[in-house]
Design goal:
The structure is a homodimer of 211-residue chains. By secondary structure, chain A is of the alpha+beta class. Chain A has 6 helices and 10 strands. Chain A binds a DNA duplex (30 and 30 nucleotides) through α6.
Chain lengths: 211, 211
DNA sequence: CGCCCATTTGACACCTGTCAAGCCTAGTGG
DNA sequence: CCACTAGGCTTGACAGGTGTCAAATGGGCG
């Protein structure tokens, strides 16, 4: 029974809900939870810290697919395909919960587990449709920083570089830097180095070029 | 028992697998399966045709969130939130299967159903991470047209306007038009009006501006 | 025919990627 | 303690991609 279960499952989890946390792991910064291409073994939930999901393209190029913050699922995508499509690396000291997988031998699939998983996956699916595609660079950066500031537990400094933010958002490193500078100039962002104090999302600028 | 179940669930579905299709509906072009903001009632699977998922922003702006082709889930995102986050409209004559929802009265949740749903949702989640973000406009258009041509069953003309493609890809309508023109000039696309005959994805151009 | 809408094309501005250079901090070794 | 290095961060110059505005073309339908 996880003492922080309310954070992950937003609701009381009864001990006989079918939920089993097989293992809780602590990852040092820089260590990987699994590598891209590895066989699927389990789904994890981030308990604290931050994971960055890195994908190596067939051309050898790398890109950050996503960052996962406390409460978010990691590795669900690998279930259908059998292999993890990305590498999960701890961007900061991170705790993860490995969920008992229904098909483990001698363990009948639990309806409650499946429902919870399905619900959580649906949430992530919805979130992934809320893409900031077609927003100008400055708004994408603001949205990302805001999201990070809202969900990082415990409140930590940004554990990734500007270049990685750019990779994540589909922007060049320099564009991220300039967007941050402009947000600060507009009083929309209070941030020094990697420490975020305050972010204001989407204050509309008249005449701004949409996309 | 759906005669085309192999398409939706990629594998034989036994009659007692726990899968129940509650209702099969035929939607004329322009009719909606559900409206944004409506209470969640069920998850559907597209059997044939094409749905376009439209979202009205708080600013009143509309954007196409996605198109759903045969075999894809519709409405899963609404389960967790309770309301549909987008309007699902038939872009072409469309058949959908409404899945029996586990929590319907008197119907115990079926493990098999949940597993299938979860697997399918995971596939969609993975697909949504494969965003063509940071690709130049021409490649995004090529990828979309290729995806549509591959998955449309039966093979139909593109049921959406260039402006809608642009909205979906985060591009301006004119950019989509010009991308199509350039793809045709490069012999990568055989398409007249809305009829796609052939698409070639990602032929690399040296010196192309990445993003 | 006349209207409406989708599609296309052109001109232009600006956002953003690329290249280059410099600054800053942390870490290392002398 | 200080020189040195490496990597992250910042800034500038420039070009190309893309959004915006405007207008023309074409097709469907009353």
């Amino acid at each position: 029974m996880c003492s922080a279960s309310h954070r992950c499952w937003e609701g009381a989890i009864t001990t006989n809900s079918g939920f089993v946390v097989k293992r809780r792991a602590v990852l040092e910064r820089g260590t990987t939870l699994f590598q891209q291409g590895e066989r699927f073994t389990a789904v994890h939930v981030v308990a604290s810290g931050c994971l960055k999901l890195r994908e190596t393209n067939e051309d050898g190029g790398e890109r950050i697919v996503a960052v996962r913050l406390p409460g978010e699922l990691v590795g669900m995508e690998a279930w259908a395909r059998g292999r993890y499509p990305y590498t999960a690396e701890a961007a900061a000291p991170t705790k993860v919960c490995q969920l008992q997988w229904p098909h483990a031998k001698g363990c009948a699939p639990s309806t409650a587990l499946l429902e919870r998983l399905l619900r959580k996956t649906a949430v992530q699916l919805e979130h992934s449709t809320r893409v900031w595609m077609s927003l100008p660079a400055i708004e994408r950066v603001a949205a990302f920083l805001d999201h990070f500031a809202q969900h990082a537990r415990p409140s930590v400094d940004l554990p990734i570089t500007r270049a990685e933010i750019g990779s994540l958002l589909g922007l060049a490193e320099e564009t991220v830097v300039r967007a941050i500078a402009r947000l600060r100039a507009q009083q929309r962002l209070d941030m020094q180095g990697r420490r975020i104090a305050r972010v204001v999302r989407e204050r509309r600028e008249p005449g701004a070029q949409g996309r």
